[in-house]
Specification:
heterodimer; A: 235 residues; alpha+beta; Alpha-Beta Plaits; nine-stranded mixed beta sheet; two-stranded antiparallel sheet; B: alpha/beta; Rossmann fold; Transcription Regulator spoIIAA
Chain lengths: 235, 620
């Protein structure tokens, strides 16, 4: 059985690197005595991956694991898994994945981010306007072959100030074909970025972007908030 | 949440490179509210998290202390360079991982002495914690700073820094210390130490002083009053099978050096290799029953979720039921998808059957330790294995499918000549041939790793000085030349690190000011190439009127009093001397399971039932 699990990565767990998170999950699944499926070969690896790596130190309300289990999983199994995970990694919901769906990681197209705004909301609003009207947003990026300049303007899909919530929200392209990093945008806005968090990961669904769980819904609903439609863990 | 905790986790951690080292909430970490604890211990490992978390002793102690509801044990490691800079700059004290509590607020700060190159780091950690370095200057409120581990059998270079030192197995002694301290908590520091000194295994350095004659010649370290024993006896856990053992290992988030479950099969070793301190100070051999081990293994897999288990001991193949154990464990672990690794296999105990079992379950490479290149020198060090043993073992391994082996040797052993070094190359060459004879395809990879011999206290070679640096370098060059063989990869240890190890290993209290000076000069984490500064160490020695090289190279007369003579590891000086003389004559000594050698260990075991193979009270 293949499932996608949505979970939060918060508090101290935001300090785990992608590799740390992988180890932590693999061991939690073993502690919960759930039957992982292993890759074949000389050095078998459990078939467990995540939608998208998160920068160390950044929290997330929506991370996704893509896991193959031998056999069916019950709600009780998921409770066991939650019990085996360290505090700060909270399971939110899960859904079984029909055959033929490519690896979750390969489907990721964008991510929604938000950050609390310190004083000067109006100033930030003005700066956001400027940014959205700029034809190019060049940033310097360090690569293996030294520094290069990248234009992230096409990757900035949405940028908005939520005035009552005093937050900046960003929808940035992600995935294999580049994208924009939230810290890059924050730097352009001259914001410190304390409390940055990932709010959702979005996949391509025809012409739309959809949250992973919504993509799995049988009917092609266009919804970023389909939580009620799928199995919810008891809190 | 204390203010330290909030500040550390919210303001400091975002700025460090590897925050996963410092979270303190790993699976199976124990967090207790301090106000409900009558004894608060912080276990300190003077190296980075990745090293310290790989250490079994720390896990055993953590488990034993935390098993008592009213006691708490937390951990602390040397912070990485980036974090250390932040702590210094912001004057933020070194804190425990679990609750981010300053070390000053614990009752006991316990350091483990695993290797000499960690000694300066201990002083750096005390400074970061704001704890006074000298035990004599600490007041009643400050924690007791304590040490244990193999280095405790010559803690003299660190004597002024520790309130007390625990010699031997801590499983029983440490809880005894805590029970007593609980009762006498409110007594003045000095009085507490007086009472603690009555516990078997507890050595209070302040109650002993180095005596010298008019000419300044060292006469020995003697108790300051007849009230204290002239020799401090090591604590021994007689029945290891019944001793507590942790199964809920803390599972780190980040990658550590030995990231796996460890199953300790037995303690002690009967082989009597003359260079090996562990083989002397952990006598007698004490095994856990196979059933006990299988039950522990099962629990461990459940409690940790680890994907690998290592069998641990000084010589795993010597476990009396090793093949059955590996077979039965193998069956169970395979079902769980857990692999098994067997470090410390002796060449002569590596059977074809064992090879096949391990091959089936293995993940790691295979390492053997002939230690010396010729039979003559192997006889000198009493490594009772032959070239045939080695070739048979590697053939078994190659036949079972291995294509790479690692061979460990030592350079600079007593009586070593160039011929012995050429012997290493000749052995490596024969291993290459054995691969062909075993029908191996292509070329095997043979790694020859050569460390520099460091004479250790409480061993037959304790009187023997280390080679001068120029000679070490010369012999390493010779080996590099001789080992230019296709398929052979040569690794060697730095001569300078080995010199420092030797200088500290057999030193006395005269080295304490050197350590203080070195720590001031910035020495720390000296086993890491990135941090090791030989020039600063030389400077520290010189400023205290000592010469590092001379300390490392000094040979001692067998009639000389030694700085660790007042510490009783169980093995008598008479026995060590006999073994030293046999070594110089090239005579071997059999495994003591074939007949008790009267090493003195029997005298340290209280109960007749505990004596096992130790049947003779002392040498004739």
């Amino acid at each position: 059985m293949r499932i996608w699990i949505k979970f939060a990565k918060q508090d101290l767990m935001r300090y785990l690197s992608h590799l740390d998170l992988m180890r932590t999950w693999q061991r939690a699944v073993r502690r919960a005595a759930l039957p992982l499926v292993y890759s074949r070969g000389f050095n078998p690896h459990p078939k467990l991956s995540f939608a998208s790596a998160l920068p160390v130190g950044v929290a997330s309300a929506a991370e996704y694991a893509d896991i193959y289990f031998a056999g069916e999983l019950s709600a009780a199994d998921m409770e066991k898994l939650q019990g085996a995970l360290p505090a700060g990694l909270a399971l939110l919901c899960w859904r079984s994945v029909p055959e033929g769906i490519p690896p979750l990681m390969s489907l990721v197209r964008a991510a929604a981010w938000s950050v609390p705004l310190p004083a000067g909301v109006r100033k930030t609003e003005a700066r956001v306007e400027e940014l959205l009207h700029a034809p190019f947003l060049p940033v310097r990026r360090k690569g293996k072959k030294g520094e290069k300049t990248v234009d992230i303007r096409p990757s900035v899909l949405q940028l908005a100030v939520d005035r009552p919530g005093r937050r900046l929200t960003m929808l940035l392209a992600a995935g294999a074909d580049g994208g924009a990093r939230p810290r890059e945008v924050l730097e352009l806005l001259a914001l410190p970025g304390n409390g940055l968090q990932r709010d959702e990961i979005l996949l391509a669904a025809g012409p739309y972007l959809q949250a992973p769980m919504a993509v799995l819904l049988k009917e092609k609903e266009v919804s970023l908030n389909a939580e009620k439609d799928y199995y919810q863990l008891r809190q | 949440m204390s203010s330290y905790q909030a500040y550390f986790r919210e303001k400091i951690l975002p700025r460090v490179q590897k925050p996963a080292r410092y979270l303190g909430n790993e699976i199976n970490a124990v967090v207790k509210p301090h106000e409900q604890c009558s004894m608060k211990v912080v276990l300190a490992f003077p190296d980075l998290y990745e090293i310290g978390m790989s250490h079994l002793g720390l896990k055993i102690l953590y488990h034993i202390i935390n098993a008592v509801p009213r006691w708490t044990a937390e951990r602390v490691f040397m912070p990485g360079d980036d974090l250390e800079k932040i702590l210094r700059k912001e004057n933020f004290p070194l804190c425990s991982l679990e609750t981010v509590t300053p070390l000053r607020q614990f009752d006991i700060v316990g350091f483990t002495l695993q290797y000499e190159l960690s000694y300066a780091t201990i002083l750096r950690m005390l400074k970061l914690a704001g704890i006074l370095l000298l035990a004599s200057e600490r007041d009643d409120k400050e924690p007791l700073v304590v040490a244990g581990g193999p280095g405790a059998f010559n803690p003299e270079p660190l004597a002024p820094f520790f309130d007390f030192v625990l010699l031997g197995d801590a499983e029983e002694a440490f809880p005894e210390v805590l029970r007593l301290l609980e009762e006498i908590k409110d007594l003045p520091r000095r009085r507490r130490l007086e009472l603690l000194a009555g516990i078997r295994g507890v050595y209070v350095p302040a109650f002993y002083r180095e005596e010298r004659d008019e000419a300044g010649i060292y006469l020995g370290t003697k108790p300051v009053s007849p009230h204290y024993s002239s020799r401090v006896k090591r604590a021994v856990v007689a029945n290891l099978d019944k001793a507590p053992y942790p199964t809920a290992f803390i599972v780190p988030y980040c990658d550590i050096v030995h990231d796996r479950m460890v199953l300790e099969l037995f303690r002690g070793c009967t082989r009597g290799c003359r260079f090996c301190q562990a083989g002397m100070i952990y006598r007698p051999v004490r095994e856990r029953k196979k059933e006990t081990l299988l039950a522990l293994a099962r629990e461990m897999v459940r409690a940790t979720g680890y994907e690998e288990m290592a069998l641990s001991s000084l010589s795993t193949g010597d476990y009396s039921a090793i093949t059955e154990l590996v077979n039965e464990l193998g069956v169970e672990l395979t079902k769980e998808g857990v692999s098994l690794s067997l470090p410390s296999l002796r060449l002569d105990s590596f059977s074809g059957e064992l090879a096949r079992e391990v091959q089936r379950l293995r993940k790691s490479g295979l390492t053997f330790a002939p230690e010396a290149g010729t039979q003559r020198l192997r006889d000198v060090i009493n490594k009772n294995i032959t070239e045939e043993d080695l070739l048979a073992a590697v053939k078994e391994a190659f036949a079972a499918g291995w294509t790479s082996v690692k061979l460990y040797f030592m350079l600079g052993l007593p009586t070593e000549t160039d011929e012995d070094l050429h012997g290493i190359a000749a052995l490596a060459d024969r291993v290459l041939q054995a691969y062909k004879e075993a029908g191996g395809q292509g070329r095997p990879r043979v790694t020859v790793s050569v460390s520099v011999f460091v004479p250790k206290p409480h061993t037959p070679f304790q009187w023997h000085g280390q080679l001068p640096k120029s000679e070490i370098l010369h012999r390493q060059r010779l080996l590099r030349q001789a080992l230019r063989l296709p398929g052979v990869h040569f690794q060697w240890h730095g001569a300078e690190m080995s010199l420092l190890e030797a200088a500290l290993s057999r030193g006395g209290r005269e080295l304490a000011p050197v350590l203080m000076r070195a720590a001031e000069l910035g020495c720390k984490l000296d086993s890491w190439d990135d941090y090791f500064r030989f020039d600063l160490w030389q400077q520290a020695f010189a400023e205290e009127g000592l010469d590092l090289a001379a300390c490392a190279e000094k040979s001692l007369a067998t009639s000389d009093p030694l700085p660790w003579d007042h510490l009783d590891a169980g093995v008598s000086k008479k026995y060590l001397l006999r073994e030293y003389r046999r070594a110089l004559r090239g005579e071997t000594t059999p495994d003591c399971r074939e007949g008790c050698l009267g090493c003195g260990m029997a005298l340290l075991l209280a109960e007749e039932d505990d004596k096992g193979v130790c049947t003779r009270a002392d040498l004739d």
